[in-house]
Amino acid sequence: MNAIDIFPWDDNFCTGIAEIDEQHRVLVDLLNRLAAFVAYQADDLVLEQVFDELTAYALHHFASEEAIWHRHLPEDRAEISHREVHCNFVREVERMKGSLGARPLIELGEEVLGFLARWLAAHILESDRYLAYVVRARQAGQDVQAAKAWAKEQMGGATRVLIDIILSIYSTLSNNTLKLMRELAQHRLAREALEESQGLLRTVIDTAPIRVFWKDRDLRYLGANPAFVQDTGLSSADALVGRDDTELGWAAHASSYQRDDQAVIQSGQSRLAYEECQTTADGRTVWLSTSKAPLRDPQGDIIGVLGIYEDVTEHKKAVLEQQRLNRALRLLSECNLALARNEDLGDLFDDICSLIVDTGGYSLAWIRLAQEGRLVSGAPTARAARTPEVLATLVSLEGAPDAASAAALRTGQTELGALCLAAAGQGTAAVSAKTSLALPLIGQEGVLGVLTLLEGDGEAFTSDEITLMEELAANLSYGIGAIRIRSQREAALASNRAKDAFIANISHEVRTPLNAISGMLYMLRRSGVTPEQDERLRKIEAAGQHLLEIINTVLDMSKIEAGKLTLEEQDMDLNALMNSALALIQDKAAAKGITLSVKGSAEHLPLKGDATRMQQALLNYLSNAVKFTETGSIQLVCLVQEETPLDVLVRMEVRDTGIGIPADVLPRLFQDFEQADNSTTRHFGGTGLGLAITRRIAQLMQGDAGVDSREGQGSTFWFTARLRRCQPPPEVLTRSDRDSAETLLQRHFSGSRLLLVEDDPINQEIACCILEDTGLQVDLANDGLEAVELARQRRYDLILMDMQMPRMDGLQAARVIRMHPGYGEVPIVAMTANAYEGDRLHCMEAGMNAFVAKPVEHTVLFETLLACLGGARSLLA
After folding, report:
1. Among candidates 650, 636, 619, which has minimal Cα distance to 556?
2. 688: alpha, beta or left, given left = phi > 0 and alpha = psi -120 to 50?
């Protein structure tokens, strides 16, 4: 029995999954066999057998296919729906099989074959092909949603139209075949049916929303649908027939089109859904999605090429725009990283320009900074270009700024413009037009400069892209400000460090002679003086003490400004603190006939705080009160303003009956270097820092400081401090007055050998005399190197070490001596004019045991020596 191809197989029906495509071929063969049996009117038994065979193989195919779908799309809606379609197919075949013998064979055959042809074609081209695309995407590593999206995209556009055309064609062919089988004897009717089918096909081609054309083997047009003819600009399809692509508006692309046509004809393989550009009749350039297939005659010989395409220009533009936006987003992210890693403005500008070109894909980028509201002429501050050749075009920007950059500086707004740039050494033929985008860099003080980008693409700089670049410029502006602030801060810190070093050096240079002065005064008094000489010595001592107070005040202010003034926390007796402060001004007050008194008590308040700083604040107030009070009284008041379980807020007041302060002076009184009388003819001296330091100390103690005063009626200076509660301190044994540290040194450590390390001859003489008067034996080293050598030669009971010396300083010498055998526990006491708290810490880190500042108070020196020599514990009375 001759076969009838009611469903001729074509490679376009391939899904790309070999197992499924092979089973589809078998199903098509079974369908064609069934068509032959119906055409030749086989008996019902034979048809029933063919029905059974078709059903059985369909079930086998459905099971194989469903296993593949389920493996890649488990319980997905598309997979479930596909199974339901299979079930419906089997039920429909069984229904039609049941009609055998009850209906005319030709009528039943027409229904069966029409159903099978339409169902199988639609199922293969649409449902199976869609799921096959999903499976192939899943096998390529995509997730389910991405795979389905890709499959949907592949099924859209020209492919969708092609499927509809093919389905329509196959439906028509199956119907016509059935009619031919039924009306084989009616040749005329068959010819009319064929003409009708061809007319329908032509109608489909002519009305399809895509361009369709076909050519002969010489690549001359045989025909086209109206949409294609319209693109050519010709009046009709007849005007197109016989022409080739070199004679049409897209002649510039003709060679590319013809190469594709020849490839399809020679290979016999279709080329589907590829992009290419085309020049339209009105001169526009558009993008096409094209598919081409071999055009065959009834014998299967290739007689030409069939092509379809659709205009995807807008889609292409959207894709390109999205790519530009993606690059801009990456550029924004990379530039933010550049802001974080660059600390120098020049490096930052170079980095940003390079990123704009390398990551952003722009042709040129440069930055010009502004000075006095104008862009700096000459070469840009920073620049970058895609290639050296493009960079050479910047020669035209070496002079005055371009118009767009100047406008951006003037308006503070983003400006779009155009530049015509010529490469260096080239003529006018080398001129190229560029689209420019000028972005103002705006800081707190105004426009800092302009960042300019150039691009040759006329579609560059969309609104979304400009928004991202404006964000980049804003971030760059912030970065410029941050780097400038950081540079200013570093310069200020360097200035402060230089100032601190200068003050420390001045302090050292002043303290060294002061130490000599105080030492000589001490020695003169011990040698015996007349009352008149003693009075003169007291004046010298007072002058030296005043100079020392000035140095200490300047040091304190320097520490406060540098944030280095820290508070200690130790047990503190406020009553003892107040009595001690009053005792220190007692002589000066008595000399002027001023009465001193204390009001308030804090005996019931065991507290912790910095007693030294509290006393310093009180002495600032008390000293001023004595200075500005000629007659009357001074009262020291202690008040408790607030109590909590953890701390106490105390208020300390110094009330005097002095000259008072004018009301207009009070607001500036606690400012640095301010006094009530700043004139050159003022009666009272001072630095103007004492009150400022007192307020800073009070603020460090979580309090404040101030004054209440009326001119001619006296003043009340006060400060508050928050002090932590503590347990009452245990009673401490103290030495009796008769057992001074000097006495105990003479009694118990006479003959002990000390090493004095000091480079100043006067201080050497004074220290040796003081130490030898207590019975101590002293060896002298002029610097650190001599000290190291002497310590190596013999073991000393204690070492007094200056810090700042030639050849080797005291810190280094102490570290070396500590490494000598037997010197791990020998006391080393710093005796130095370096009086900063940091200096004391450096001494402790170098292995020293104690610290005595110059000018040396002899009682402090004796106390320190006694403690370090081991007598502090055993000699307490």
Report:
1. 619
2. left
Say whether pTM exceeds 0.70: no
| DSSP state, residue 727 | P
User: Cα-flanking dihedrals φ and ψ of residue 570, to 5°?
Assistant: -145, 165
Rounded to an integer, the average pLDDT of 387-401 is 60
| Coil vs helix vs strand at 538 | helix
**Burial call 521-533: b when 16+ CB within 10 Å, e when fewer:** bbeeeeeeeeeee
DSSP bridge pairs for 367? 382, 451
Place of tokens 């390390």: 757
Concatenated DSSP letters for 99-118? Answer: TTTTS-HHHHHHHHHHHHHH
Each residue's pLDDT tens digit, 295-347 = 998 888 999 999 988 888 787 777 777 777 777 788 878 888 888 888 888 88
CA distance 198 to 214: 16
- The residues, ordered by sequence, that sit 6+ positions from 520 with a Cβ below 8 Å of its Cβ are 762, 766
Is the peptide bond preceding residue 855 cis, with omega within 30 degrees of 0? Answer: yes
- Dihedral (C-alpha) 571, 576, 581, 582: value to the nearest 10 degrees? 170
* Confidence band for 41, pLDDT divided at 50, 70 and 90: low
For 456, the token pair is 């040759």
Output helix, strand, coil percentages for the chain, rounded to the nearest 5.
Answer: 55, 20, 30
CB within 8 Å of 110: residues ≥ 6 apart = 178, 182
Contact 206, 226 (CB under 8 A): yes
Question: Does residue 656 surpass a pLDDT of 80?
Answer: yes
Beta bridge partners of 226: none
For residue 130, give the amino acid letter. Y
Length of the chain as a residue count: 877
What SS3 class is residue 449? strand
**Would you state the structure tokens that stand for residue 366, as one six-digit string?**
């440069």
Report the mean per-residue pLDDT for the chain: 79
The amino acid present at 856, given as its one-letter code, is: V
For 873, other C-beta atoms within 10 Å of its C-beta total 8
Dist. CA 830–CA 772, nearest whole Å: 19
Q: Can you tell me whether residue 173 is helix, strand or coil?
A: helix
d(CA 469, CA 323): 15
- C-alpha span between 782 and 776 (Å, rounded): 19
Non-local (6+) Cβ contacts of 638 within 8 A are: 574, 578, 598, 599, 600, 601, 602, 650, 651, 652, 653
- Order across the sheet with 850-853: list the strands: 777-781, 753-757, 798-801, 828-832, 850-853
Q: pLDDT tens for residues 671-702?
A: 754 444 444 334 444 445 678 878 888 888 88
Alpha carbon distance 23, 123 (integer Å): 13
Neighbours of 94 (CB within 10 A): 11
Q: How far apart are the first and last CA of the chain?
A: 138
Contact 331, 354 (CB under 8 A): no
Among 244, 188, 238, CA closest to 221:
244
Is residue 311 within 8 Å of residue 286, measured between CB atoms?
yes
Q: Which are the contacts of 410, defined by CB distance < 8 A and separation ≥ 6?
A: none
Q: Which H or E element spans position 287?
A: strand 285-296
As a whole number of angstroms, the distance between CA 327 and CA 320 comes to 11
569-617: per-residue pLDDT in tens?
A: 788 888 888 888 888 788 888 888 999 998 876 666 788 888 878 887 8
